[in-house]
Amino acid sequence: MNVEEIFPGVFELHMDYGRDTAGLLTDGAFPHAVWYVAGPTPALLDPGPTVVAKETLRTIRELGYDPNDIEYVIPSHIHVDHGGGSGWLVRELPKAKAVFHARGVPYMTDVTRLAEGTRQVFGDEWEEVFGELLPVPEDRVVSVEEGVRLELGGRPYRVVFMPGHSLDHIGLYDETNEALYSGHGLGNYMPHRFMPDPPMTLPYFDVAASIDSIRRARDLKPRYLLPAHTGFLAANPAFAIDAVERVTIELGEIIQAGIREGTSQERMEEQVRAYFFAKPDKADRSYLPTVQAYVNYYERQDRRRK
Ligand SMILES: [Zn+2]
Ligand SMILES: [Zn+2]
After folding, report:
1. Residues of the chain with pLDDT under 50
2. Of the residues 33, 83, 117, 195, which has the fewest C-beta atoms closer than 10 A?
3. Same domain membership, residue 137 and residue 2
4. Containing structural domain, residue 88
């Protein structure tokens, strides 16, 4: 695990784990960043799946802190690669409560639907990749909504509701450092590519809600942006937010045109690769999951209109 103190008392813990068997982000291991907020009322932001959570507690001990002091575990959303370790963590940590948006709570107190959805997207070996998925007992859950304030590490943070990537996605705004912990809600920023991925996922991705969340994040004018998979973006978050807005809209236009013209998904995937890469044959992975996420959304919209 890589550790960096990004603000006084705030540590970014970064690791790669497992394999992205759905090809949502990479054709190899998942990258994941967790933040440990030290001080009074210590917290873990975007704890990740259980395999990451185990490493995280070891690393916190090595930093000289006692993980048993942790009071809040705050995933940006319920997906197993972000919140899947919550049940395991509250079992391990005597004081910890897990914080979810109200819409996500039922999926975490009973994880049956989440486990089944994860199996459908990542395949039967999903538990080997992410580790066990334990439910969070109801008395260890804190349910939040837009605007709720939390004291983490003795400093004020605010919940920002950012649905689209999932129906329950939240960001956390750190008022001291003017930093937005954006989870997966503002897309994904790969170090080798200057254009971000849209905040897409399978099977459920709400394009319009994502664009709305992206715009609301920009209105906060954060000085720093902290996306969960690749971690700290140092400078000019406004550029990153503009870029993800544009990518999310323009990929939608490509897919909508493809649907209108009866283009095959394979051909749309070539168009998406050509959008990202000057040499599409040198793309880092298949963009078929991206195409499918958009197609699912527009087909849902179409059914709703009929
Ligand atoms: Zn997700
Ligand atoms: Zn994610």
Report:
1. none
2. 195
3. yes
4. 1-144+151-155
